[in-house]
Amino acid sequence: MQMKHARVLILGLGISGESAALLCAERGAHVTVHDQREAGTFTDARARLSARPVAYQLGVPAPDPADCHLVVRSPGIPARHPALSRAAEAQVPVWSEIELAHHLTPCPVVAVTGTNGKGTTTALIADMFHACGITAHRAGNMGIPLAPALAAAKPADVLVLEVSAAQLENVHAFAPSVAVITNIQPEHRNLYSWQTYHRIKASILRRHTDASATVVSYDDPTARGLVTAVPGRLLYTSALGPLPARLDGVYVEDGRILVREDGGERELLGVADLWARGVLANVVSAAAAAILWGVGDRAIAEAARAYRGKEHVLEFVAERAGIAFYNDAKATNPYSTLHAVNAFEDRPVVLIAGGKDTKDADFTALAAPAMRRVRHLILFGETAGAIHRALIDNGLDLPTTVTEDFTDATATARALSRPGDAVLFSPGTHTWDMTPDFLTRGVLFKQLVLG
Predict the structure, then answer these.
(1) Which residues fall in a coiled-coil region (predicted)?
(2) Which end of the chain is more exposed for a tag (fewer CB within 10 A), N or C?
């Protein structure tokens, strides 16, 4: 689509919407941004866009998109939004920000999707590219806007995108050169049926050709089921053990990360060389993507060894009186919390979890054998009762304390923990009943620990 003089309606003025407005306005489009929230909410965003001729419809019903050339839907905009229905009636195309990026980027794309582990895998891929001299621009679902990445991108560079289900809903021509699928587990059940969620995640492969490449976790049966007939080169990954002999990929065996290609095997690095907790599955997926791009083994190993983790993802905060505190505030579903607990094979865990369930989460997923390493469970928020019942009903009766609020939960965890324990904040759901986003709750936890 030719952006110059095009009439574009942006739905939602969060990070995604602001970035989309900037991208379209810079290319000469007539941009209108709508958000149902009041104008005072967006003082900073409007100031950042002030140099561009952007119109606003804030705190009012959405304008009719019938006379627009394009609607760009931000990830938080529900499918039932009236402007989307009207756009469909008027046959106005609706794009996600990822589709917009596809049409505007000058360089190839590596895209990472899945239920959990997208952000860490994306960061590792970019680090591995950088380690061998490739300029990689990281953006997408992790809160990094597309506009600055696309502004800096050159044809010889690579755009590495973390892609959520919401961002895949309105893709049409999007065709990454390499697609990475970390895992697919039930998520966002308030928005999607399992069949719909599965179909949306599979759409990342929709336009693959023989020139495309795919990385998929063999450890996840649902994910690997997506690639049975996908064209192009394919590498499997496993953090749990060797791959079947017939499959090429990156896997773990006897404490080593190994690569199998074209009948040969070689070692990349030792598992003990990894500094960050809980990143083994991410490292093997990122390494496979880098190998498909031609990155050398030395650069891959160097980046993996150097990786120190992401803020709010199994982030080490401090050690106090022999007790280690970890911030996993980004864990917004039970599977992510279970993954975090799995990262502590070497010490008992005092787990802080709970909040407000906005996604119809299946808390029975927490009733797994690995949860037995939780020495004490501290629950808070609206979901405390639901989490406790799910564990009890599924035969897992952990020592549990239900607290009044998050501050009390953190103080209780500190009081109940012993030297050698890990106090882990991994909510397993949203905490919108206490904070607006995972960044805020992560910062609050660190303040409570360090204060």
Answers:
(1) none
(2) C
pLDDT, tens digit, for every residue of 120-136? 999 999 999 999 999 99
Residue 395 assigned ligand-binding role:
no
What is the domain partition of the chain in residue ranges? Answer: 7-92, 99-306, 315-450
Q: Which tokens belong to 367?
A: 């009733």
Higher pLDDT pick, 357 / 3:
3
Residue 12, marked binder: no
Given a cut of 70, is residue 157 above it in pLDDT? yes
431 is in an annotated binding site: no
Q: Give the CA diameter of the chain.
A: 65
Whether residue 299 has pLDDT greater than 70: yes
Residue 116 among known ligand-binding residues = yes
Calpha distance 438→404 (Å, rounded):
20
Q: What is the pLDDT of residues 52-75, one digit of tens each?
A: 999 999 999 999 999 999 999 998
* CB neighbour list of residue 261: distance below 8 Å, 6 or more residues apart: 248, 291
Q: For domain 99-306, give its CATH number from 2.70.150.10, 3.40.50.720, 3.40.1190.10, 3.30.499.10.
A: 3.40.1190.10
Amino acid identity of residue 164, one-letter, is S
Is the pTM higher than 0.85?
A: yes
For the chain, how many residues are written? 451
**115 annotated to a ligand binding site:** yes
Is 446 annotated to bind a ligand? Reply is: no
Q: Does domain 7-92 have CATH number 3.40.50.720?
A: yes
Fold category of 315-450 in CATH: Protein-Tyrosine Phosphatase; Chain A (3.90.190)
User: What DSSP string describes 42-79?
Assistant: GHHHHHHTTTS-EEEEESSPPPPGGG-SEEEE-TTS-T
Asked whether residue 118 is marked as a ligand-binding residue, the answer is yes
